[in-house]
Amino acid sequence: MNFTRFELAGKPLASLSIGCMRYPSREAAAEVIAACAEQEVLYLDTSPMYCYRSEEENTETWTGAAIAGYRDKMIVSAKCATGNGGNQVGEYDPARGFSITTADQVRRQIDQSLRRLQVDRFDCYQLWAAHVPELFDEALKPGGWLEGVMKAKDEGLFDHLGVTGHADSAEIKRWVDSGWVEMITVPFHIMDTSRLEGMRYARDHGVAVVAMNPLAGGFLGSASEGLAREMADAGVTSAADLALRYVASIEGVSALSGMTSAAEARANCDTLSRPLWSEEQAEALRLRFEAMIQGAEYVCTGCRYCLPCAEELDIPGILRLRNYNVVLQLESAQREFRHKYRHDEHFRADKCTECGLCEGRCPNQLPVSRLMAEVMATMGETV
Ligand code: SF4
Ligand code: SF4
Prior knowledge:
The chain has 383 residues and is α/β, with parallel strands linked by helices. It has two domains: 3-276, TIM Barrel (Alpha-Beta Barrel); 315-379, no CATH class. Helix content is 42%, strand content 12%. Strands 3-4-5-6-7-8-9-10 form an eight-stranded parallel barrel, surrounded by five helices. α9 packs antiparallel against α11 (279-294) and α12 (315-328) runs antiparallel to α13. One iron/sulfur cluster is lined by residues 300-306, 315-316, 319, 361-362, 364, 366, 368.
């Protein structure tokens, strides 16, 4: 296993971290965590809401049961949010850990997570889902989230304090400059590097960085003949291999993967035990990846000038999936298209009437109606 430069609670933070949000069952949680622990992958990211079915059946209780017997080996993290999971403060929702705004509410939240996880202390506690500045500011109010959390930290209930959320680089820097943030968790993957500046700022100020969504929400978690062929010289074997090693090659960054089975955990452990790249090599591979996508025939750049479509189709959304399918032969792109086709009217590419309105507006002169037919023929045939 590769490791970051950081330690949490005196234990090394591996290049892979365990996201506890996608377990299909209590048994799967135990298998994933055991497989990871064998490889010194120790950091567990939990929340009151993940896999929530009841007070007894949720990620926290499953994780607590899984680590019974070796809790001290692991790095246990819990969290709650000032917001409602979106961008608003919302209604107090303690069962799922949302809209926790007062010091008393936070304390009850901490006690709930300690109980569910069956531990007497965490290693880390985090402000969860601080997507916009208002939610971070909410935490700082007198008598609010931070006050309650600081008191619990003084009582020895955890060692490290962190923040998670989909904030931009400027906001990440503000978190770091607040002085109390010791770790951050933000979205980052090879298809979205927009937060890299903020992540580097955090790392360079001694703040541990955990990257959520390293496989772009599972999109890159599959084989890709195109990538393996194109990047054989760099030892890339699949889309998942490139995506995970790209993230972990950014110094100080651990890739937080929401694993669902022991097999997936072992595959990720194997991948992140392989040599990483320098940041320069990783950037060169990212540029090659981007060039592959852009180099395909009829690449949609997502500029949206073609909209609105006469049939209200999401033309850039459909053509984005076509890009990935054509260039990378990603089975996940076909799967996502089929899923969207079934559940979203705007992805019914066969509704295109060939009216040509969009084609007159497209700066790349894409034959959109022809591409809609091609998408249905190549990606929608099993719909
Ligand atoms: S040609 Fe098809 S995709 Fe383009 S505007 Fe007309 S219906 Fe929409
Ligand atoms: S205008 Fe052309 S390139 Fe831009 S989003 Fe629409 S189809 Fe894609």
